[in-house]
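Reviewer 2 asked us to include a model.

Predict the structure of this chain.
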Amino acid sequence: MIALPPGIRTARADDAPEIQAIYAPYVRDTAISFELEPPSVEEMARRIEATLSTFPWLVHVDDGRIAGYAYASRHKERHAYRWSVDVSAYVHRDCHRRGIGGSLYRALLRIVREQGFFNAYGGITLPNAASVALHESLGFRPFCVYRGVGFKGGRWHDVGWWHLRLAPLPPDPAPPIEMGSGSFLAQEKGT
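Predicted model (structure tokens):
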């Protein structure tokens, strides 16, 4: 069973207003997200609930407010990809450079490893030195760049992909365990 670090807990649908407020500036003001319009609070709540049936979605709570979040998602739809996840983290603009992204990712990676996933992938719109440094500090290594793959803000953007092997590849892997099918997490205390 995994105990989450102090200040980190599983997201809930009622966290959607704070999560949406963190994410919206990334959508509106940057090419970090390729969404063109920020999702509504209701859409964020739906995404949280849908994700938590299979994958972890974590929040970092600081002084009673959500300072950042991280989640895992399906890497690709085809069945043979089911042992791989994509991971994402977003930190409130006022909370950068405080280690929040790293602590969220470390907790998230422990959970997906325990679930039985073997590969984690992070896509980064380039350039983004802070995100590259975060991923590489956790052991992710670059493996490809999709050149000119997205058009946003009046220009084309490259996306680099980073990979982390979570565990050695077995000859006959068991299916990953979904978040909704059991608890990997020690009982969370009021964070």
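The mean pLDDT is 94. The two ends are 18 Å apart (CA to CA). We have added this to the supplementary material.
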